[in-house]
Amino acid sequence: MAEEPYVFTLKKRNNDDAEDDWDRYSENVRPTRRGRKIDALKRNVEEVVTEETARLKLDQLLEELQNLECSEESEELQKILDFCSWFEEKLAIGFHKVYYELLWKIISRHGFLEKYKEDERMLKIWEKMADNSAGHAHDIYQFAISRKSLVKCAALYARWSQSVELAGAYVEARRVLILARTNCAVPIQIVNDAEDALEMREMRRHLQERDSDDDEEEEETRKAFTNLPVIGDNHTVPIVRLPSMCSDTTKKAMKFDTGNVERVNPVCKDNQMQPFEVLSYTDADDVEYLRNVHELHAHIERYAIKETTNPSITGSSTSEAAAVTIYPVSSSEFEVWTVEGSGPTKAKARMAIKRVFKDLSFEEYAASLLPNHPSMVRATAKKLDFDETL
Amino acid sequence: MFGSSGFGNKSMFGGSNISTSTTTPAANTTQNDDFLVDGAPEDTIQVIKFSPTPQDKPMLACGSWDGTIRVWMFNDANTFEGKAQQNIPAPILDIAWIEDSSKIFIACADKEARLWDLASNQVAVVGTHDGPVKTCHWINGNNYQCLMTGSFDKTLRFWDMKNLPNQTQMAQIQLPERVYAADVLYPMAVVALANKHIKVYNLENGPTEVKDIESQLKFQIRCISIFKDKSNQNPAGFALGSIEGRVAVQYVDVANPKDNFTFKCHRSAELVNGFQEIYAVNDICFHPQHGTLVTIGSDGRYSMWDKDARTKLKTSEPHPMPLTCCDVHSSGAFLVYALGYDWSRGHEGNTQPGSKIVIHKCIEDMKPRPTKK
């Protein structure tokens, strides 16, 4: 037999990267919003913190808070946030479920949400819960509003809309911002900026989709500005804020779906607060659902959002004013998520196949070569005669 | 079974004597239990299938692009021994075993579907299309038996085997686009089309379309495989592989849309000229007992995934050639996959002629990992 052109072996190769293939793809790793501190990744053996340690530390903290005097109530939330920072430093990766359970334990304390419903520091708590809820951020923020926590905080709605947009529900992201207006969230500039940024990103996505379909010829027809097509299954159209519409205060806000109306009722109508409470939260099943929502693996692909500069939003939720995409920076020792001043330098990807195979399968290509396919040098198969066999 | 074939000690492959497959040395066995199957075809293997009947001695059949079909049998020496070969004057695009493992259906690129009777070693044409036959599946239903063939001529045809040698077509379904992949797990059949739509058929009392699902994947569908529900009783959905290094898991009757998802796979670890290369997912197979899946790609790796936990179980080291097809034995003990050039880089990319067949013990590798709490 002819000598093999290469030496084939099944000997195992040294490929250290294979063990971390899953983590290499950014969609499979959910980083914290502000990146991870480098010290947290350089752990020493003696400093290893376990899940039990975190649970015990929280229990001690909650017990300590129970004994606080009334004058020290403002320190309670700060101590909780300090615990969150400690948790994120010590248990950076792979403890999303534990983190969610601990956060739920915090907010489910009696009177906690009512006590801090106007405190903007609660935004951090909701963000952390949303980020660790296995893709159920929409439900978390909805729950927060239903419990009247940060109802009038515009930054919450901006963050909520952004998380929904990341999940690909662009129409729902618009509804969230509409809800912010209906609830008279302040400052209104945050809502306006988030809305503008959302539409800008939507246009950019459409342009990119159009660029990827170079072979298709799309017949573009002009339509009257007032006859914009609906988007999705609902009869809603893209938000177009004309100057005359912005200044017109007599028109009613756009209506929501029935489901949203039932779950999240606005507390403000005609730019005035209602004289009495119109929302009563009695659906206990929601609480039980959200308690264990982190067990439901809702894998949502995330991709970087190139936000425009919006210090109002970032200033409300983070101490840093950086308004750039967070992306991984690999080095020879470890992988660190950090915020860089320059634009993202994530490597581009390309398919390792010929362009013709995007529309034509490999087998079709081979079949098109017949009868001159280089493999076809064999004789025709013999036909079977069943009569002879019988 | 092969007594009447008259082969005896006659040479079967390439003029050389029949020999058993090569087992890796003991030093490598502890690290890697894979072993090669001797006598692989000289051209790219398009399809490889274990015999369906659970046997003490499973059989293995493969079809290649040079029209060669070969059958091996697992012998007493724990190796696969070559048993039979046929040469078809066209590339083999798919094969399907009959339920008792006595015959093999062959889908050929010359627009014909053939039946190979292993006992008599004769081949008959049992169906024809207006284009290359891409898929063939044997349907062993409660009320009827037939062969389902899908083709690039945009039709799905069902053939009756009772009136051979006459070709009897039981049904024909006109499809909007070419058939790129198909799978059958009675009573469900799924057909993936070139327009990235998946037709779902109920095969009870004849094929009936029950759903037309648009693929979650943006690029061309390359393979499809049906999986069972958690009770391992009934088909529940399918997994799709595309040329873009992505797999979609789709439930047919989904209670929660979040149950459907996609994940990336088969992408280069290093940058090549500043780009991360994305490879095609050439085949997908589900483990019959564990419900986990294995994907193989043009990057020369196979990966094992737990779709319920949405985690990766294992990834192999890169092989020197793309992996073209795979199959898991009905016992769940063996994974077989073939190496060869898959034409992804065109005719000029075929720099390493030939193919290899590797058997991998997978019952432990594809076992879902217990959840830690």
UniProtKB/TrEMBL annotation, chain A:
GO terms for cellular component: kinetochore; nucleoplasm; nucleus. The keyword Coiled coil applies. Keywords: Coiled coil. Residues 51-78 form a coiled coil. GO terms for biological process: meiotic sister chromatid cohesion, centromeric; mitotic spindle assembly checkpoint signaling; regulation of cell cycle; response to anoxia. The keyword Cytoplasm does not apply. InterPro entries: Bub1/Mad3 (IPR015661), Mad3/Bub1_I (IPR013212). It comes from the Eukaryota. Residues 61-222 form the BUB1 N-terminal domain. One of its GO terms (molecular function) is protein kinase activity. SMART domains: Mad3_BUB1_I. This is BUB1 N-terminal domain-containing protein. It comes from Caenorhabditis elegans.
